[in-house]
Write a structure and sequence with these properties.
The chain is of the alpha+beta class. It contains four helices and six strands, in the order E-H-E-H-E-E-E-H-H-E. Mean pLDDT is about 85; it is low at about 1-30. Bound molecules: iron/sulfur cluster and FE3-S4 cluster (F3S).
């Protein structure tokens, strides 16, 4: 049975690491890749097919990369139709906070068993959402 969905309106209550902590994290784990805003409500999942270490974790309308598992191979970057994936150090400035969201959400979804290893159909209105403004507030998570 699938968990119920809810809008994580309380995500703002979670403390996002400061940029200083983020730098320390990068030093510890290399340079993981990060799924950024264009993935929200699209979820094409082409990235999953090419990842050699299966480090993508699935939420209802977004995928996140687990930074300790990512081996920085770059395979996922060119296959994403909406250019949602970046090396951490090449994230557009407005999406830098997705580094923390990927870590937080990937760990939550990993704990719940939502590792995704095969391509699935995109969300029904994926093409429509490609053109819309969106933000991390649009990310859905599982009811935990
Ligand atoms: Fe997987 Fe490589 Fe992309 Fe990391 S960079 S998420 S290991 S395909
Ligand atoms: Fe998202 Fe692109 Fe993968 S839309 S699911 S990052 S292929």
């Amino acid at each position: 049975m699938s968990p119920e969905l809810h809008f994580p309106t309380d995500l703002s209550h979670y403390e996002i690491p400061t940029s200083h902590q983020s730098v320390c994290l990068a030093a510890q784990t290399g340079m993981p890749y990060v799924v950024a805003e264009p993935c929200i409500n699209c979820k094409y999942t082409d990235c999953v097919e090419v990842c050699p270490v299966d480090c993508f974790y699935e939420g209802p309308n977004f995928l996140a990369i687990q930074p300790d598992e990512c081996i920085d191979c770059n395979a996922c970057v060119p296959v994403c139709p909406v250019e949602a994936i970046y090396p951490e150090d090449q994230l557009p400035e407005e999406w830098e906070h997705y580094t923390q969201w990927n870590e937080y959400l990937a760990n939550q979804w990993r704990d719940l068993g939502y590792n995704i290893t095969e391509k699935t159909p995109p969300l029904d209105d994926a093409e429509e959402w490609e053109e819309k403004d969106k933000s991390e507030q649009d990310i859905l998570t599982w009811d935990v």
